[in-house]
Amino acid sequence: MNDAAAARARKLFSGSHNCAQSVMKAVLTEMNLDFKQIVPLAAGLGGGMAHEGSVCGAVSGAIAALGVVNSRKIQDIQAHKSATYSSAEEFIRQFKQEHGSILCNCLTGIDISDAKARKAAIADGTFARLCPSYVESAVRIALDIVVD
Predict the structure, then answer these.
(1) Is 103 helix (H, G, I), strand (E, B) or coil?
(2) Is the pTM value of this prediction over 0.85?
């Protein structure tokens, strides 16, 4: 299950989707929670939140997906928020353990907010080389958490 979803996310990322869109779409499709607004919803989350280099879009997309998944089983707003914080904290713990950081700048070694550096990283394949593993990992970790 997780490998197919991770492969789906990689394919989306290799196409026209950013990291957040790819992860969120793959996780929610796997959980039968796909909806038309996933891709537009996650559009600004790539590049560490609108190319700011902060929290990786794969992480943001996974956390957003965890919130949607939790909403399926928890209707009370406070209980849902609490469960989603717990899921997100566990996700972040595991992602950091695997990759050392959740920050886009740290993960890529690029100052994403610098347009010239970002353009050079696109041209030299930095994102295409590094980011698919973060996208796949985010999907696997998120799905492991929701299955537990």
Answers:
(1) strand
(2) yes
